[in-house]
Amino acid sequence: MRENISWQDSRAFLEQLPRGAFLTVSHGGRLNTMTIGWGSIGHIWQRPVIMVMVRYSRHTHQLIKDAPDFTVSLPLDGNLKKELGQAGTKSGRDMDKFAELSLAPQPALKTVSPVIKGGGLHYECRVIYKQEMDENALDAEIRDQYYSDGDYHVLYYGEIVACYRD
Amino acid sequence: MRENISWQDSRAFLEQLPRGAFLTVSHGGRLNTMTIGWGSIGHIWQRPVIMVMVRYSRHTHQLIKDAPDFTVSLPLDGNLKKELGQAGTKSGRDMDKFAELSLAPQPALKTVSPVIKGGGLHYECRVIYKQEMDENALDAEIRDQYYSDGDYHVLYYGEIVACYRD
Questions:
Q1: Which helix H or strand E contains B40, and what residues bound it?
Q2: Most exposed of A42, A146, B66, B125 (fewest Cβ within 10 Å)?
Q3: What are residue A93's phi and psi, to 5 degrees?
């Protein structure tokens, strides 16, 4: 059961994101999901947009760097808490997270990338902009704290083409 | 009267932003405000963050490019509607918008840049990251529609250090 939501009604998005969300990408016959805790939601280029971040070292980087779309699924009410923890510490290079963590991909309405079933919010996003970070323009404390190994994020801006609650 | 709000309670922010908000910057003894309609709010680098965009051609660009902070003031309930329209079409190069549009800057709690009085939401932000846009990584339709003259935006990411309603 899908219940459409307004992208502007984002309180649940911003409250759950720091606790964990699934970023899911399917591209070139490969599918992976990873846990994210950082991102944003806004109105850019006259469109509703979600921004997500993926480090170069991640298996997801290999998929999303050329993908046309991604999805963000945010379990609410404590759903899939264990799975969020595991999907954030294990790499899709070494395992099929869907099989091993019993995660259920569900076909999306408008994107190739599926969403993750499990009682929450789902955002289907078409990539409209992406950018590598510029380390010289970043606050020094943040740089030292999160990027001392040089493993920066790439920022992906996706137009929200569908959003709903299951 | 200030009433503290939660940065995550962002529905009013995202509903008003497309209708107009004031981006205000004070730096080097100069003060200006401009109307913005694009931006985002999120959780990045373990901090609440607002991202705003300023084109190179804007007078505000000359102030914000080296400024340590900025504020975003969003009038609600139709307040300052006329002023939002005017502040978006006139340049601070040619006029003092505060005097000519009867806008009232109000000292901020934690930033040098003041907020704009007028019945709405206020976000005080410390610049922690900024980045020029990469035209080659942008969706072609968006590029043609908004940047055909090459006047791109610079993106400013500000940590929300205070947010409240007046």
A1: strand B39-44
A2: B66
A3: -65, -35
